């Protein structure tokens, strides 16, 4: 459900901006690009499904979604390892998430974003005219 609520805000924001600017994409020629922190949702598949459902009867109904997940990072105090945390290794509801260090298996703090960092809407005008 968290994915749906977050995507609902993103889609509403895009549609509002499109209305303000007076833009409507040609069917199948819009691309929505999102950069989202790994702590923003539990499932990338659910996030994508929410986009499909929420854009169904809108000008974005045929838009392509490009989703980039900004990974969480782990910093191990036991062995000094620092690097990306595998996707899905952290509980996004935990205010102080921890994970298992991939180098020594000790528990270590995770850090990352729980926000949508970038929203971009683009139109493929060449495909629309060709």
Key terms for this structure?
hypothetical protein PF0899 fold, alpha+beta, three-stranded mixed beta sheet, four-stranded antiparallel beta sheet, 130 residues, elongated
Summarize the structure in words:
- The chain is α+β, with helices and mostly antiparallel strands and 130 residues long.
- The protein contains three helices and seven strands; from the N terminus they run αβαββββββα.
- The protein has helices at 2-21, 44-55, 125-129, and strands spanning 30-37, 64-70, 73-75, 82-84, 98-100, 107-111, 116-123.
- The strands form two sheets. Strands 4-3-6-5 form a four-stranded antiparallel sheet, with no helix packed on it. A three-stranded mixed sheet has the order 2-1-7, with helices on one face.
- α1 (2-21) packs across α2 (44-55).
- The termini are far apart.
């Amino acid at each position: 459900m968290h994915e749906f609520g977050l995507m609902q805000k993103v889609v509403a924001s895009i549609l509002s901006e499109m209305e303000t600017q007076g833009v409507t994409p040609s069917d199948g020629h819009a691309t929505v690009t999102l950069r989202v922190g790994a702590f923003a949702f539990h499932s990338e598949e659910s996030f994508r499904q929410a986009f499909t459902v929420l854009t169904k009867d809108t000008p974005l109904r045929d838009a392509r979604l490009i989703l980039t997940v900004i990974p969480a990072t782990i910093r191990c105090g036991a062995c000094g390892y620092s690097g990306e945390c595998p996707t899905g290794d952290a509980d996004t509801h935990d205010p102080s998430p921890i994970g298992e260090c991939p180098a020594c298996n000790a528990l270590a703090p995770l850090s990352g974003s729980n926000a949508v960092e970038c929203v971009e809407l683009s139109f493929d005008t060449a495909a629309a005219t060709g």
